[in-house]
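Can't paste images in this forum, so I'm doing it all in text. The chain is below; anyone willing to post the predicted structure tokens underneath?
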Amino acid sequence: MATETQGGKLARFLAGIFIAVRTYGWIFIALAIAVLAISAISERESAHLTAIRPRVVPLADGANLVEAEELMELLAGSFTKPLDQLTLSDVDIERVEEVLESQAFVGDAEAYVDAGMVLNISVRQRVPLLRIIADNGQNYYLDRDGVRLPLSENYTVRVPVVTGNIVPWSEDYEEQTDHQLGQLMALGRLLYRDPFLAALIEQIDITDTGELVLAPKVGDQVVYLGRYDDALTPARLERLKIFYREGIPYEGWRKYRSFDLRYADQVVAKKA
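Text version of the structure:
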């Protein structure tokens, strides 16, 4: 009788273990998976980068204002250890992108580490819209977003050059109504968006009275555009395009020394 009682207890014990395993086994499995995952993550975090591959997306003409080597030097200065000794845990992707975007010619930077432990970097450059060479000695680019850029040691961008009586640079010029730099940005965008005008205009000179005088890339003519106006300036440039396309072919551009757009609905052309 005692033997049967002990046998029954054993059976109930084993049955309890079976039920517990069947009921809570998934918890043990989940814990095991979690431990393995944490171990794998820790191992990856401590692994060294195998390479850093920066890529600078060229401008439309294939040129670079900043080179990959310059970005590597900038990146090296932001870490406390050599780049070839970095582990994954040393690399904060967001911080890497911020460091690269602090470079004047970088508009946007994207970085990621791939399965091969390679830090891949892709950089989009800022695109100059105008070059400012002012009588006050200032010399810089304005990009398409209105950001001031220094001159590049790698490449000189062929964009319309603004010369003459230009106001000094002001960080808040976009917040000021009718600021000259804001008007120049508006004019630059008009020229850039129109293939004909972009190919035609080489220089914008600002007179002491604040009027705009354009110089075409071909010929010795000048174009008197007058003061910038949101409504009048686009209309005047449209008249200039029509005159170049329909009027000049009959006479030839070499016969003219100036075109004056300041008069309503007409182009006053003076012959050489």
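The domain at 128-271 is CATH 3.40.50.11690 (Rossmann fold). The two ends are 132 Å apart (CA to CA).
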